[in-house]
Design brief:
- By secondary structure, the protein is of the alpha/beta class.
- It folds into two domains: about 10-175, Rossmann fold (3-Layer(aba) Sandwich), CATH 3.40.50; about 185-325, no CATH class.
- The chain contains 18 helices and eight strands.
- It has helices spanning about 5, 15-30, 45-50, 55-60, 75-85, 100-105, 125-130, 150-160, 175-190, 190-205, 210-220, 220-240, 245-255, 260-275, 275-285, 290-300, 305-315, 315-325, and strands at about 10-15, 35, 55, 65-70, 95, 115-120, 140-145, 170.
- The protein starts with a helix and ends in a 10-residue tail after the last helix.
- Residues about 1-5 have low confidence and may be disordered.
- The structure holds nicotinamide-adenine-dinucleotide and magnesium ion.
- It catalyses: (2R,3R)-2,3-dihydroxy-3-methylpentanoate + NADP(+) = (S)-2-ethyl-2-hydroxy-3-oxobutanoate + NADPH + H(+); (2R)-2,3-dihydroxy-3-methylbutanoate + NADP(+) = (2S)-2-acetolactate + NADPH + H(+).
- Its cofactor is Mg(2+).
């Protein structure tokens, strides 16, 4: 194996949630890391303050053995066509943290390139924090195109540099990563969970209960439950809740999330698999995000947000966290 495969020179394009964490962990793991960013872009100051050599993407990728594409998914096609494809060196490796553009054929990578995926299963801030304390966030990885014969080794080297090998590395495909990631965030994590909380809040408030109490019940206390899931699955939650809560769980949970919900989850999955979701999302993005902005505003204006803001201001244990928090982007998780 040549020295390139052992310690590839890495350029990270994009310095948001994932980009910052990847660049810092890889540097601390001994890699030579350059950051590619548009001059004057919003994260350039941060990358420079963190001590990186920052260059415009076209320059930054020219000598790289491996280019990690860590910009928002919707700008990657244009970035690849206009900047990466004309400037990456022959035989280099193109790495993604999400398979969307390659899997749905929006990017058709040059034939001389290796193309791999390394997706940490956690937000950038956690990828960095775990690394700093000597641990790591599990990563899933895949090879789409192996021109050099070393693509798998490169993906594993990169995942190791992120700290992922200290936790767990699981091999996947671009198809599986893309479809499961989209499904998770839509049906369960982001879409499903927030809709469940809003509906629960509305149900209590419309029945005349105080919004403050409704907030504590359906949003605030969810953290306790999710922490138990995280630590020991549903088994651990059942160990910690009362018998009354368990009985209510068994008889009422399936009334709320029933076979109809599961059938609609399957429709969501089908739209993801056949490309309908991605086609609609690209059209929405290209139209200037009219519906996205409307939906987002409705979430921000929901009454649970007003009462939540007041109640959280009294949670002294949160104030310290907010002050220490990373910029908004680095908290993004999905
Ligand atoms: P982000 O929005 O936090 O950061 C994007 C970065 O790209 C910023 O530095 C921005 O300035 C820069 N950028 C934007 N347009 C650019 C352009 N045209 N040229 C160069 N730089 C540009 O993005 P993110 O959430 O870190 O997502 C990056 C990738 O990681 C995506 O493919 C995403 O699906 C994937 N991913 C994200 C998470 C997560 O926790 N957020 C988890 C797993 C995978
Ligand atoms: Mg995602």
């Amino acid at each position: 194996m040549s020295s390139n495969e052992q310690t590839p020179r890495i350029t990270v394009v994009g310095y948001g949630s994932q980009g910052r964490a990847h660049a810092m962990n890889l540097r601390d793991s001994g890699f030579d890391v350059t950051v590619g960013l548009r001059p004057g872009g919003p994260t350039e100051v941060q990358a420079k303050a963190d001590g990186f050599e920052v260059r415009p993407p076209a320059d930054a990728v020219r000598e790289a053995d491996l280019v990690a594409v860590l910009t928002p998914d919707m700008v990657q096609k244009k970035l690849y066509e206009e900047v990466l494809a004309p400037n990456m060196k022959q035989g280099a490796c193109l790495l993604f943290a999400h398979g969307l553009n390659v899997h749905f054929n929006m990017i058709a990578p040059r034939e001389d390139l290796d193309v791999v995926l390394v997706a940490p299963k956690g937000p950038g801030a956690l990828v960095r924090r775990e690394y700093e304390i000597g641990r790591g966030v599990p990563c899933i990885w895949a090879v789409y195109q192996d021109k050099s014969g070393h693509a798998e080794q490169l993906a594993l080297t990169y995942a190791g540099g992120l700290g992922g090998a200290r936790a767990n590395l699981i091999q996947t495909t671009f198809k599986e990563e893309t479809e499961t990631d989209l499904f998770g965030e839509q049906a369960v994590l982001c879409g499903g969970a927030s809709a469940l909380v809003q509906a629960g809040f509305e149900t209590l408030v419309e029945a005349g209960y105080q919004p403050e109490i409704a907030y504590y019940e359906v949003l605030h206390e969810l953290k306790l439950i999710v922490d138990l899931f995280y630590e020991g699955g549903i088994t651990r939650m059942l160990e910690f809740i009362s018998e009354t809560a368990q009985y209510g769980d068994y008889v009422s949970g399936p009334r709320v999330i029933d076979a109809g919900t599961k059938a609609r989850m399957k429709e969501v999955l089908k739209d993801i698999q056949d490309g309908t979701f991605t086609k609609n999302w690209v059209a929405e993005y290209e139209a200037g995000l009219p519906n996205y902005k409307k939906y987002k505003q409705a979430d921000l204006d929901h009454p649970i947000e007003q009462v939540g803001k007041q109640l959280r201001a009294k949670m002294v244990w949160l104030n310290g966290q907010a002050a220490a928090a990373q910029p908004a982007g680095s908290q993004r998780a999905a």
